[in-house]
Amino acid sequence: MTQGYSEVGTRAPGALGGASDGWDTATQAATVRPVTAQSPLRAVRDALGSSLFEMIAGPDGPSARNRIHGTRGPRWFTEDRPIRWVHADASMFVGGLRALLLQSLHPLAMAGVAEHSNYRDDPWGRLQRTSTFLAETTFGSAVDAQRAVDRVRGIHRRVHGVAADGRPYTATDPHLLEWVHIAEADSFLRAYQLYGATPLDQSGRDAYVADMAVIAARLGVIDPPCTEHALAQRINAFRPELRSTPAARDAARFLLLTPPLSLTARAPYGVLAATAVSMLPLWARVPLLLPYFPPVELTVVRSVGRVLVGGIRWALPAPS
């Protein structure tokens, strides 16, 4: 569902951008005191990191990463912009899954996904294209970023139809694009504030929303919110349009209970799913038939979630 209707699957961090700079100290320490290739801990980290990176970036991930970071030229966002910190952090795993669940509550947006996306048949391919889009627009050259946006807008022009309630929809509708955008911006920011390496102050949070607005406007969103307060107001304004649908509930079941994963990956993913659900407000859970246990979520789920996100951050260190 990321990039409008064109991408559906568990959202990953800007994998091609690397993990948070909060772990650079550890990386530098390893450079000063190198760990031998025979180190069991290093071997585990390398194996886990390679597996995660291929899952979220695909087999061509390393070459795409080199292209994105190595291409010279101006960027949409300089290195001091919050969007680079947020999208490079492992908390994006949690934020992305929350965004997908939240986005599914709009019947017209979900109709486009259900009728035009093969998220069930190829969720990892969708994930990889999403990861590349995030990396290109956040870290890539201005030329590559605009090409990525143009590519997505071309896909959107082919996505249209009639929803189950008889209403027509099109993925180029600025109103639907806005819902997809604000659900993502809110989810990414909330996840980073709870599980990110270095949470943002109010000024940083407003700057992140403003950074996201740059991409949203280029995708076709009209007057996207530029502050955290404005973002919250937009989400509240959409609430009368949101409701439970069979397609939304089906997508939630697939994302949370039956994703195509190996047995060894199901337990960590279960933690990721519980962490994402715990960040949803009650009004968003009821339509999706999701549980609500505040005491457990504020203690056990949040603690285990921080361990999991920290482990992902450890396995996917920032690029040099």
Number of strands: 2
Could you describe the largest sheet, including whether it forms a barrel?
2 strands, antiparallel
Count of separate DSSP helical elements: 15
Element-level helix/strand string: HHHHHHHHEEHHHHHHH
The structural domain count equals 1
Helix share of residues? 55-70%
On the 0 to 100 scale, the average pLDDT is 85
Low-confidence stretches: 1-13, 19-36
Work out the radius of gyration.
19 Å
Shape, principal axes of CA atoms: globular
Taking strands numbered 1, 2, ... along the chain, how are they ordered across the largest sheet?
Answer: 1-2
Strand percentage lies at under 5%
Instruction: Give the class from helix and strand content and strand pairing.
Output: mainly alpha
Features:
disordered N terminus; single chain; 2 strands; two-stranded antiparallel sheet; mainly alpha; 320 residues
Your description of this structure?
The protein has a two-stranded antiparallel sheet. The relative contact order is 0.18. It has one domain (21-315). It contains 15 helices and two strands. It is mainly α and 320 residues long. Helix content is 64%, strand content 2%.
Q: What is the topological layout?
A:
Elements: H1 24-32, H2 40-57, H3 61-70, H4 82-87, H5 92-103, H6 107-116, H7 123-139, H8 142-156, E1 160-162, E2 168-170, H9 174-195, H10 202-219, H11 228-238, H12 246-257, H13 263-278, H14 282-288, H15 294-315
Antiparallel strand pairs: 1-2
